[in-house]
Amino acid sequence: MRTDRTVAMLAAACILLIGGMFCDGAARAQDAAANYPQYPVKIVVPYPAGSIPDTLGRMIGDQLQVQLGKPVVIENRPGSTLLGAKAVASAEPDGYTLLIPTVTTFSIAPQLNPKSGVDPVNDFTPLARLGGTNFFLVVGSSFPARTMREWIDEVKRNPGKYRYASAGIGTPHHIFMELLKKQFGLDITHVPYKGSVEAMPDLLGGRVDMSFLDGSQAVTYIKSGQLRALGTSMAKQTNLVEGVPPISATVPGFDWSGWILMAGPRGMPKPVVDRIAAQVAALQATPRFAETLRTALMEPMPLLSPDQTAVFVREEYGRWKAVIKLSGAAE
């Protein structure tokens, strides 16, 4: 009997001790979140300085630095976008290491490189969606089609005649064209390049006939008349170039874009998440941010809360998984 009482007393003492430790740890975490930030914050940009993700990351860094009162350091990690993502995923989830990922980082590259160890859905705390990248389906100025319907009919009449350029296998430029090829049974030869910049001389010179190009690559050539835009990948009407309809006007359901987000490691405290997200949302509501998107030839997108951004990441990962497989870029 005495032994049972002793065991019960010891168990109660352990529960109190563990509970106290837990409460003490939770209190310290709550205090740290309430006092965030206490030292410099690092934003990892897995792209080179001067890139669009870098520009947006630096704007956010300036906003956080002014409003939160601590230095914000931008760390560029160009090369494989997954290297920067992996570094952030393994960081402490305290809000002092953040990431500016793109559709490539969170929807495409992890599925093309499944051994990378990056799980965008489960390894990160999404904070905000910053903007979208629209892709224009362009053809040479002498191409015998001026609309999407005419383009489909022209290519169908001439199987194997035309060639399209992409920025490489598994890029949006490649995947979007393969989707249209599969849907309409089109025979177009794929010519992959190391990037859109490398493809431009052949596209402008007529050695390849067509391509998907993002706004930053396409708009100048469309406005100059060197290339003709037949449609855009996003279903919304673009304001980047007048008179270019969405592809979805001819191909119902075709609605694809690139995008840029902000995220941190999985498990960030909610008060820290909310504080960062509030500052990013405040920045996104300014004319300066809108002008930066316009100058970068990006599309504004509706603001999302952190929870909504997490849903967006999960849904996009699933959508891209299906089309990557369909395109043949991955099994």
How would the global form be characterised?
Answer: elongated
Number-wise, the strands total 10
By CATH, the architecture of the largest domain is named 3-Layer(aba) Sandwich
Mean pLDDT: 91
Number of domains: 2
Q: What brief labels describe this structure?
A:
331 residues; alpha/beta; D-Maltodextrin-Binding Protein, domain 2; 2 domains; five-stranded mixed β-sheet; three-stranded parallel β-sheet; 17% strand
What's the short version?
With 331 residues, this protein is of the alpha/beta class. The chain has 11 helices and 10 strands.
Question: What would you note in describing this structure?
Answer:
The protein has 331 residues and is α/β, with parallel strands linked by helices. The protein has 2 domains: 39-132 and 257-327, 3-Layer(aba) Sandwich (D-Maltodextrin-Binding Protein, domain 2), CATH 3.40.190; 135-249, D-Maltodextrin-Binding Protein, domain 2 (3-Layer(aba) Sandwich). The protein is built from 11 helices and 10 strands. The protein has helices spanning 2-34, 52-68, 81-89, 103-112, 148-157, 172-184, 196-204, 215-224, 270-284, 287-295, 306-327, and strands spanning 41-45, 72-76, 97-99, 124-133, 135-140, 163-166, 189-192, 210-214, 227-232, 258-265. The strands form 3 sheets. A 5-stranded mixed β-sheet has the order 7-6-8-5-9. A 3-stranded parallel β-sheet has the order 2-1-3, sandwiched between helices. β6, α6 (172-184) and β7 form a beta-alpha-beta unit. The longest helix has 33 residues, at 2-34. It is elongated and about 70 Å long. The mean pLDDT is 91.
